[in-house]
Amino acid sequence: MPKDMRRDFADRAELVAYLAAEFPAAAAESAAVSATRGGRRAAEALLTAIQPARYASTRNFLDGAVTRLSAYLRHGVLSLAEVRRAALRAATRPAEAAKLISELAWRDYWQRVYAVIGDGIWEDREPYKTGLEAAAYAQELPADIAAGTTGLACIDAFSRELVDSGYMHNHARMWLAAYVVHWRRVAWQAGARWFLTHLLDGDPASNNLSWQWVASTFSHKPYVFNRENLERYSGGIYCRACPLRLQCPFDKSYEALQAELFPGGPPAATPPRRRQ
Amino acid sequence: MSELVRPVVWIHADCLSPQHPALLAYPGAPALFVWDEALLSSLRISLKRIVFLYECLLELPVSIRRGDVAAEVLAFASEQQADGVVTSASPSPRFAAISAQIAAQRPLRVLPVEPFVQIEQRLDLARFARYWRAVEARALNTFPEDTV
Fold first, then answer.
1. Measured between CA atoms, how close is B4 to chain A, in angstroms?
2. Does residue B46 belong to any structural domain of this protein?
3. Are B134 and B62 in a shared domain?
4. Are B45 and A29 within 8 A, CB to CB?
5. Per-residue pLDDT tens for B22-57?
6. Do B60 and B89 belong together in one domain?
7. Chain B contact for A35, CB < 8 A?
């Protein structure tokens, strides 16, 4: 007779201790526990707080009015249809909810692509458009990135937030992914695996295809950023105290970055588009 | 396929809602979630993800086990003397593989989850922009035939 796992816990600490004992390999990856709670009640509390108009104007900022619904959407605690309806209800007119709904549409789009290509999400959909062969990219994530010890205040903060909380703002994901792939020349798959280990919303399709978007294996050109962009949307909180602020590898024009990161690559970039 | 009368519900990690279509279609049916041991060891997910999922499960009327998913679901169906298994759809290839293993032994009914938008036409998925052009009016309820 198979034995059911426990459902009765006095509190969260007891649940966490039980799960750490039941799943020692997961605890060995990282024993951190997120402040974000699972379940429909937590999801509904966030859903009632969405602000579609503020989302549209502030979502690129790390302190913007983002919804934090991604983990609940990933695991179907909420459906895209429910959130779409809630966004329309919370907006004074549909156009006000358009940005939030188009971001929901990205998830729907990735899921539809997944239904077609399946495990092909792990393969380069197209060649890199960086002027480099796939073989030029390292297969393993460098230890200093995983440990948050690169010395770059922004990158290390993003790395620790990923591991400690299982959550990152979308813009921070894009910066971190671009750093991993383009500055460190690491294959996107290594970064994608790392994110899936930790992100509460880790979805193979959304995650891998977004990494491919940054890498340029599922987009027309690589995504890069510079210090001005990061400083603006982070409110300068990392740069101010960064030990490498005078040797910042991001403190360049897009033209200079293009020449440095993609020698022999595609023509000089226009200011970057954003995935969001 | 004939209608199932007393099925068990197989809950998987792509639909952890109390509004799960199988829980709504078969209220009170015994439900099971199985931690996929093989997937856990290949994906190497960290403890916080397991805690989050477990908290989702604790809000659902579901038994929780671990092991080989298809084998556990089939064993659960036998214990419950069920006439089949009901679950919700998922695009994941692993879901397809496990479903095929279950369906080889027992009737399996896969219910759709409510789609983001109702679209009948074939969508061009080569780039997001093309997909979005096709669905935008429906998504924003501004499609002429829709009522808000």
1. 24
2. yes
3. no
4. yes
5. 999 999 999 999 999 999 999 999 999 999 999 999
6. yes
7. no
